[in-house]
Structure formats: C-alpha cells, structure tokens
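Example record for the data management plan.
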Amino acid sequence: MNRLIQYVRSIGNAMAKVIFSPNPATFPFIVSNGTKALFLRHDALGDMISTLPMLLMVKEHFPLMELHIMCTKANVSIIEHCDFIDVIHIVDKSILHAPLLHLKELRKFRSMDFDIIVNCLTSQASKNGILTALLSGKHTVSSSVFAGDQYAIYYSSQSKQAANMRSMSDKMLALGSETFGILRQEHDARAILPSSQQFAENALNTLRELGIEENNYIAINVSVGQERNRWNSSSYRILVDYLLQNGKQALLFGLSTDSEMLNSIMQGFENIRHYPFNRHVLEIGEALKHAAWGISPDTGFLHIGSAAQCPMIGLYCFLPDKAKEEWLPYGVPHRAVYSETQTVKDISPENVIKACAELQTMV
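Corresponding structural encoding:
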C-alpha cells in the first residue's frame, strides 16, 4: 500500500512539474512602491493570530506595499480592525480542496496580477502549492515555508529559516524576514491583538455586570473546534472547585452550542458565571486582559489569550516532542498539559491543577 501511495505521489509530482513552472527568484524578493503582495491564511483563528506579527513587520518596513490577505469566515474577525492590512479577501475553505469549483474566483485573483504571493500554510503542502500556482500571474513570484525539494515546482523560493523554527509564530516571522529581506528586531516577536476603545469598554462593563473582579478571575474556555480536544464537564467541575477554594473566581467562555456543557459545569456553584454568547472575538480578547490567567484546550482561545498578554494553560492531545512547541501560547507565561492519548478528555484534572499552581508562581 505504501509503495502504491509513493508511486501515485511520484506520478503527481511529475505531472505538476510539467504543468506548473513558477518564476525563478531568490530571497529577498524585490519590493517597490505599490508592490502587491497576497498572503494566504485561509484556515483557522489561531493560525491567523500567529501570522499577524509577520504581517505587521512587513507593512512597517514597506508602508507603500499593497498588502492583501486571503482568509476565511473562521478567521476574518481577528483582522477586520487591522489598519496594516489593505485588502481582505474572504474565501471558502473548499477553494483548497476543490479548486475546480472556484475557477471564476481563481481567475479574478490571477487578473489582479500579484507581484508576490506568500503561502503561510504549512500543512497539505501539495494542495497549497497547487493553489498558489493557480493564483499566480505571469510575473508573480511566490514563497512558502520549506517542506522539501519536491515542492520547488510550486514556489519561486522556500524558506529554510522558517522550517527550522519550532513555534508557528516564529515560523511566520522567519518566512516574512527571508522573503522580504527584513532584519528582525526583538519587538517584532510580539503577539498582536487588534482592538478598539469600544471593545475594551464592552468587555470591562460586562465583567462588572457579572460581578467579576479584575485580575483575580480565571478564564476557562470549553469550546473546541475539534471533538478530540474537548475536556469532560466533570473534569472542569473539579478544576472550578479547586479554584474557588483557593480564592479565585472562575469565568467560563464558550459558544451557544456549548450551553448544555456550561450549565452542567455551573450547576451547584453559586459564584460562577459564563461570558455572554455572540460577542466579538476582539471583545473576548479585551476581557482576557483582565484575567489572572486562562485555561483552554488546543484551540483559537489559547492564541487570543496570548495576544491579550494573558498567561495561559493549554490542554493538548498527545504530541511527539518535536511538535510540542508549534502551537504553545506565544510570548506569555504558560504551561502545557498533554494527554497520553489522542483525546484531551484523558487529561486528569489533577494535572491541570498542578499546572495552575506552577503558573501562579510565574505571574
């Protein structure tokens, strides 16, 4: 079976080499006034948050560049208030898996004749390579994180600097640095939470209405994007009981679809609330600025917390050692708790409580 898969891949790579021929270019790419650059980040919320420092770094160095970004409905909310992004293009995720259904849209992108395309996605390398090639015009040069010499058929250059970085945020910064010839500064490696005074006021008012004491509450997220990352309500209840007994307030966060689980966790506790549903993600970030720390399974909430400079505890499925740093909270004190299996539900509450005690000594 493995030989068959390798054979099919070799056939596919051979065909791609004939069909696609990216314009040759070496790093750094040439940027001039009015250069149009498209960054591909059509995936999840946490991925977009990890890319914002790189986008800001590039725009600060090239303020007259026309910076475009391809995103999805799942992650557009985090960039709607970014003044360093010039044009936002919202696409359906299916553009990656079924590009033939989006030929009209692809032709529209090609007609924009981007000077530079930067693929910020590190998974599904062949599909993203094909998509990058389909989006490229006659003069486009393109870059990506190095995934292997076989992907040179899709990109003008691949960043080996980025491939050597362990965290996703550092990968993105290295990709931008090598693509555009930018000497990274220490301040570039900072998480970014775009916001507004209105979001900040809304968050503060909501916390006060709920009776939540600033800087003494623990933000606990129960919502997940993938079922394997969901923790048990019984485990949450043990955690909440520990926090309350140690003088902390607990504020739950989740979506309206998590109502049943939230009610199950809160049952029997007098002083526990959940943050109102359907609030903007940037308001959630502002609320997290006032938390002592946050706790969440591996999902976008972890990275919202990081961007809000909130210390975080992340709950993860089993990961090999070389992959453990990729999605850790970035730039804040944190602890990671790993399951011994492929499901977060197998993490014991005692291990999370231990992480809480350790994190408390750090903040």
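Summary line stored alongside the record: Residues 317 and 342 are 5 Å apart (CA to CA).
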